[in-house]
Amino acid sequence: MSPVYILKRFCFMLVTLFCISIIIFAITMVLPGNLAQVILGEFATDDALRALEEQMGLNLPFYEQYGRWIWGVLHGNFGHALSMDQPILPLLLFRLKNSAILAAFSIVIVTIIAIPLGVFAALRRNSAVDRIIQVSSYIGISVPEFATGSLLIIALAGPVLNLFPSAGYVPFSEDVPKALSHIVLPVMTLVIVLIAHIMRQTRSEMIHVMQSDYVRSARLRGLSNTMVVFKHALRNALMPTITVLALDVGYLIGSVVVIEEVFAYPGIGRLIVYAVTSRDVPLLQATVLTVACVYCLVNFLADLAYGLVNPRIRYHS
């Protein structure tokens, strides 16, 4: 993989984040209401509002306000959460860590289960096992996340079995077994949803690759079926799957609002909802920008992973 390509992709990621930060700041600035009004309340006097606006720089041009904000972000200063009266950065890191725990467990389990199932279904195309796998994936995709989570709570956390807690959170630093028991149901819900996507993607790509000319040539050279599948076909079939996995990581970090609400899990997705409902503009800016950073970083790493999965790929400047 060309170092020039890596550098270009990294610079492109930075430019993308810069553009996203402008969009985020602009959208939050045009939201109904005034930040000074939110802080002082609806009965604040005009003099008090003007004084606070001047103190916070809200009377400055847009580009100056953006410059102050992004300069603070680059120096680790995300501002102050108005609704919670505390610095944003510690709160953001805590919620991001919690969401990352869910994402890590879910992605590892999905990768271990979904990719082998997708390969197996492709190699047994149109068999009874393949049809069962396809039907299961359709069910996993079609059932909403909140329904899957609610069913798991009824089945596994209800009065009959009562195997796991239905909601809440325990830090791993306090009690590892209890912490694991609290994330079992959220992770199971996410795994059920994501397995369907990854499995179908892997199956589709494996079927396409197994029909390609270079796979037929490998068979004609007398290579074993195992060698053909795992050395030649699977590496190429995994390319789109890596992209989907990268997108799923971003989804898991910031978009699992429903899961975090159902299980009362303190992740960053739930924090975004809180920022919106409480009209906490600095908190909303920080959380959305963080999720955007995760998306960009994970996709950058996915590009690098292409060369590791398939060494024949060489990127050139």
Key terms for this structure?
globular, MetI-like fold, two-stranded antiparallel ribbon, 317 residues, 13 helices
Residues in helix, %:
over 70%
Tell me the CATH architecture of the largest domain: Orthogonal Bundle
Shape descriptor reads globular
The CATH homologous superfamily of the largest domain: MetI-like
Number of helices: 13
Q: If strands are numbered along the chain, what order do they take across the biggest sheet?
A: 1-2
Average pLDDT number: 83
Determine the structural class based on helices, strands and strand pairing: mainly alpha
According to CATH, the fold-level topology of the largest domain is MetI-like fold
Instruction: Give the biggest beta sheet.
Output: 2 strands, antiparallel
How much of the sequence lies in strands comes to: under 5%
Q: What's the N-to-C terminus distance?
A: 10 Å
Spans of 5+ residues with little confidence (pLDDT < 50)? Answer: none
Instruction: Please provide the count of β strands.
Output: 2
Based on CA atoms alone, the radius of gyration comes out at: 24 Å
Q: Could you state the order of secondary-structure elements as H and E?
A: HHHHEEHHHHHHHHH
Number of domains: 2
